[in-house]
Every structure is written in C-alpha cells, then in structure tokens.
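Input record, target 12 of the design panel.
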C-alpha cells in the first residue's frame, strides 16, 4: 500500500475577491480541502508492479476514484466514543461512567456487560480483506475481566483474548484475512458480567499498531481517492526489482 518514508500534504483553498475600489474579501473554501500523498515505492517485484499497473489501468489514471487507506491514520470512526452511531453494540452493554484515560488529559469510557453472555462492540469498515491489519485498544478493570479483539471478513473469523488488569494496557491484535471481501468488521468483546474501561480503539493497515490517533467522523478510509498522474513511470532497477512514484489525492470531509 505504501512504504516509509512517506509524505502527506494538506491542501486548503481561500477564495479572494478584489473589487474595483480596492477592497478585498477572502473566504475559506472548505469544499476544496484535500489530502495529497506522495508515495515512492522501491524494491517492487514484477508481481507488485503488475498489480499497481492493473489498478492504474482500471481507474484510467486520474479518471476514476478508488479506495485508499491512509497509512498515517486510524481507520475507525469515533475512536473515543463507543456510543456513536458508527459502532454496533450488544443489547446488554451500557456506559455507566467516564473515567480518566491512559493518555494525558484523555477520557475513557466504562463499559458494563450486564448479561451472562459475552457482548461485543464493533465497526464495519469498507476495506479489502486482502491486507494486513492491526486492531488495538487500551483497557483496564479494577475487578479484572477479559476482552477479546476480533475481525470478521467474508465468513472468516479471527480473534485473540487478553486479560484486563487494574493498570492501563494497550492490547494489539494483528490479523491478515484473505479473500476478495470488501468489508472487514473489527471489534472487541467483553466477558459476561464484567465492567471494563476502554479507550482509543484503532485499526492500522499494517502488521503492528502505530501511535494512537484519535478520530471523529473522518477516519483514514478514503473511498474517493484519485491518482494525480495520467501516466505511470516504472524504473527497472534490476532483475525483479522496480520502483515508481505515485501521487494520490482525496477530498477532506
């Protein structure tokens, strides 16, 4: 998807109107706000270059949008508000209180499972099942308990369980689904009768968790990204070794 080092730029536009008497009116144009990624890829195999060329041909360069996952960002929405509409919650889960979070000045949610069965909180993401992901969350519980991080894609289910103690811990669950599914559901389950403090659910499109990044309505999944190039220049650096540079743009909001 990308290699580091990687550059992401934010573009803002201001509308400038100068009248005949010299007065100037400036207005922000939020509809023109965009992100641009400068992606330099090296050491690519012939198969990897063929996959990039295939995508480039399918979308006809700048003509057609495609989904791009921001390597810098958290892929879930509302990472600190598990009661938001983006999350699907078990019917017996409640949020009785807010508590001090693991990061300076942060606020976490106490989540209570009042039933005698496990209950889950999950979010479905429009992302391909063919990539490597890492789901992570901070958790703690004075009374102890167990959380399970899970991912479901195309009929496949993956999970890993962790014990929640009195101190905040960040638990990470790497997962690499396979198949052609275009949606992956990530979530966390709570054991029966437990109350767990949760904070900062995150999904990264890589093998491990990066530094936590809070999100609101805007997450790192851009379904309407475009190439800024109409030609793909590939340099052959050796046998089965190639490189190329791409620019990708996506509107903000």
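The sequence produced for target 12 reads:
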């Amino acid at each position: 998807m990308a290699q580091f080092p990687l550059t992401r730029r934010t573009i803002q536009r201001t509308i400038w109107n100068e009248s005949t008497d010299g007065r100037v009116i400036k207005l922000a144009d939020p509809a023109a706000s965009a992100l641009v990624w400068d992606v330099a890829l090296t050491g690519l195999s012939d198969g990897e270059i063929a996959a990039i060329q295939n995508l480039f041909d399918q979308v006809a360069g700048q003509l057609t949008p495609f989904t791009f996952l921001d390597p810098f960002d958290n892929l879930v929405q509302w990472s600190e508000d598990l009661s938001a509409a983006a999350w699907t919650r078990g019917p017996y889960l409640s949020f009785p209180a807010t508590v001090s979070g693991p990061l300076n000045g942060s606020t976490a949610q106490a989540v209570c499972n009042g039933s005698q069965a496990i209950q889950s909180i999950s979010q479905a993401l429009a992302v391909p099942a063919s990539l490597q992901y890492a789901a992570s969350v901070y958790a703690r519980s004075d009374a102890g308990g167990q959380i399970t991080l899970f991912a479901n894609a195309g009929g496949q289910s993956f999970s890993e369980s962790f014990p929640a103690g009195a101190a905040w811990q960040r638990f990470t669950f790497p997962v690499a689904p396979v198949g052609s599914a275009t949606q992956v559901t990530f979530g966390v389950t709570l054991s029966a009768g437990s109350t767990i403090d949760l904070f900062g659910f995150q999904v990264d499109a890589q093998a491990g968790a990066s530094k936590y990044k809070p999100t609101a309505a805007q997450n790192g999944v851009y379904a309407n990204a475009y190439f800024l190039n109409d030609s793909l220049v590939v340099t052959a650096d050796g046998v089965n070794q190639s490189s190329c540079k791409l620019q990708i743009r996506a509107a903000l909001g």
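Residues 7-71+222-251 form one domain.
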